[in-house]
Design goal:
Elements (H helix, E strand, L loop, with lengths): L2 E5 L2 E3 L5 E8 L8 E6 L6 E6 L6 E3 L7 E6 L4 E6 L8 E7 L6 E2 L3 E5 L2
Parallel strand pairs: 2-11
Antiparallel strand pairs: 1-3, 3-8, 4-5, 4-9, 5-6, 7-8, 9-10, 9-11
Length: 116
Amino acid sequence: QVQLVESGGGLVQPGGSLRLSCAASGRTFSNYPMGWFRQAPGKEREFVAAISWSGGNTYYADSVKGRFTISRDNAKNTLFLQMNSLKPEDTAVYYCNAPGRFADYWGQGTQVTVSS
């Protein structure tokens, strides 16, 4: 059974930082792109960042560009999202995403709350 488990979320003040992790098990995702999505209260799930299999290519939503950094450790089958200069509008549940045979795999999500 394939599982993606996010961790690292929590409560942080505006301007603070958090590092999210996504640990994959059940199969290796080292040869596939992976990404992060988020869903804020009352909003649809939106794309945040993605990374190629090698880590050489990254993609970011305009809203997080310059503040967030996506990375991966293929040897450990783990995905990361470093979030800096956090804003209240970054408050959301963050989800790890990976391609599946018929549909994408998703983690359970980790809550990120940015508030003073």
